Amino acid sequence: MNRGIYPILSGALAQEERIQVLSNNIANLKTGGFKRVEPVFQSVLGTAGRLAGSFGPSADQQPVMGGLPQGANERVFVQSLSLATNFAGGQLKKTDNPFDLAVQGKGFFEVQTPQGTLYTRNGSFHLDSKRHLVTESGMAVMGDKGAIVLKSGEAKVSSDGRIRVNDALAARIKLVEFAENEPPQQIGGGFFVGQNPKPVKDVTLLSGHIEESNVNSFAEMARLIEVMRSYESSQKILLSFDKMTETSIQELGRAT
């Protein structure tokens, strides 16, 4: 088998992963607080000799990636490295609901779920039947002193996160942030998990608004089309290799 098929195959698998991630971004266009994700790849040389800086004949025969054939040391493969999240703010949508809140700048709301403590930028909140402040899915929104429960009366949320009921301070919404080298990981539905959260010092909330997804539908569709074309090109090259192999076998049969 022509060993050139393996780098092309690794590239096709990388494009397939990009298609899945881009499709997920598009599917979450209407998910409040969703952040665009992009896969990160790295190139991996086919032999250990180039990685070690050795160009000797013996080093050239040492494979790096398990299961890949030995061959010339200029062969390069693609390897998935991680998923990078774009934390840029999304557009604001006005709702006039006093409990719909948009974070201005850094910060995540902390919510309590059956899976434990999660974080979100989706500030689409409301009061349940017991006057607990909850998310769209009914998860408790946390304040500085735990879950937020409000008494009956006219409630207002100020820009610093303080909630007043009939002009009396009732609670303060908790916002946290993460170190740049320990960003939270998006797990779906606009929720994140993270380690070592710290309270945001200067909280700025905008009441009556929610932050929408930061995915640009036109740009994302253009990326998806581009990646699909690249994937189709890889498929055509693989078919060409297959045809070359078939032709070689037929010619070899005639020669013998």
Condensed summary:
The protein has helices spanning 5-27, 48-52, 217-255; strands at 37-45, 76-85, 92-94, 101-103, 108-113, 116-120, 126-127, 133-134, 140-143, 146-147, 155-157, 162-165, 168-172, 175-177, 185-188, 191-193, 198-199, 205-207, 209-211. By secondary structure, it is an alpha+beta fold.
Describe the structure.
The chain has 256 residues and is an alpha+beta fold. 26% of the residues lie in helices and 30% in strands. The protein has helices spanning 5-27, 48-52, 217-255; strands at residues 37-45, 76-85, 92-94, 101-103, 108-113, 116-120, 126-127, 133-134, 140-143, 146-147, 155-157, 162-165, 168-172, 175-177, 185-188, 191-193, 198-199, 205-207, 209-211. Strands 5, 6, 9, 10, 14, 15, 16 and 17 form an 8-stranded antiparallel sheet that branches. Strands 11-12-13 form a 3-stranded antiparallel sheet, with no helix packed on it. Strands 1-2 form a two-stranded antiparallel ribbon. A hairpin with a 2-residue loop joins strand 5 and strand 6 (116-120). Helix 1 (5-27) packs antiparallel against helix 3 (217-255). The longest helix is centred in the C-terminal third of the chain and has 39 residues, at 217-255.
